[in-house]
Amino acid sequence: MNSGLSLKRLLRVSVAAGAAGALALGGLTACSSDDNSSDSAGNPAGKTTELPSNPATGDPIKIGFIASEGGAVQLPMLRTSGEAAARYLNENGGGIGGHKVELVVCKQSEEPASATKCANELVEKKVAAVVAPLSSQGAVMLPIITGAKIPYIAQAPVSRAEFATPGAYMLSGGTIAVLAGQAKTAAQSGIKKFTVLIGDSGDAATSVKAMATPIFQQAGVELKVVVVPVASADPTPEITAGLADKPGAVTVLGDTRMCVSAMKVLQSVAPDVKKYLIASCLDKPVWEAIGGHDKLIGAKAFTTVNLTSDDPSVTLYRSIMAKYAPDDDPQGLGYLGYQVVMSLGEIGKDIKGVTAADLRTALTTATDVPLPAAPGLTFTCNGKAMPMLPPLCSNSIIVSDVAADGKFENSTVIKN
């Protein structure tokens, strides 16, 4: 994909990614489940391995961890998986360049007041970096954290600020990478028409259309964005009308509730259309609501993780979770917290000290760093992965076929 024109256009409309990212955050919130069993029916945990013994002995390096826990937002698995990764680094993985990880956790409720409090608290505690696996409050927290010259690291961008603020480091390309990967996959598959189903919350539909249109145009695929009323008990009329031109593939950008309602309609009115699905449409509540994993067989998954793989990095993830977070579902959302903490161990192998400046140097000089539990994905945070959007450390996405029992097969990495 030629990035020049698209990225210039994307920079002007990067708020779109914030809108879509906020929807994804809502999906993750809705996905939370009381069933944390790692061997849920049809969703086997996979094999594990014995962990090495390589304890960290150097001076501690303080890492601030902003957890999304409070009020209506309860994602404790992001924190517990991050804590599990820190324990592994300290007890088994040699820390961050030999330094022990001192995780300083602050919980916020995904609203400005608590997010501001956390940002200020972590600055006061002089952390060397702040990690926020996924948050809608980047625009609030970033000016405080980066203003103190502390690196801010997230798994994926949600707010516009995370796409453009110097000192922010996004380990994945977020919505941009997803849409670019979907466009390229559609073109390679000979698909001429592609439909995006998106909820009517705020300006999300308008923003995503502005962002996605140049991407799909350059891929030679006709794009249609269909707005679905999220409050509707039955969106069949809107989705049916939106599919009247018989697209070759369709994606749903929304939270779990929207994924459930849209997937039910698609099963009824367009069962044979190819489905390109993001994480919120592949989670347990969705396949349970639509009648089981077999209803997703043949879909394409666009993700920054592959939790059903037997790749050594994924086996290590399952092993760490089994030892240090045994009550969490290793197939759930914990990978978001795990990836941001474990990535610090990867980039900090040759770190010289424990200050924010030391960690920033490690971030900006490490290249093609493997993203933990994401076979084939790497990140480079020197501003060159997407030059028009320097905080993005990757422009790639994993594309997989969804097979029986929700397993991913034929996984490939698309670089955009």
From TrEMBL:
Keyword Signal recorded: yes
InterPro entries tied to this protein: BCAA_transport (IPR051010), Leu-bd (IPR028081), Peripla_BP_I (IPR028082)
A Pfam family of this chain: Peripla_BP_6
Keywords from the named record: Signal
SUPFAM superfamilies: Periplasmic binding protein-like I
Region of interest called Disordered, as start-end residue ranges on this chain: 33-56
Family classification: Belongs to the leucine-binding protein family.
Full protein name: Leucine-binding protein domain-containing protein
Organism: Gordonia amarae NBRC 15530
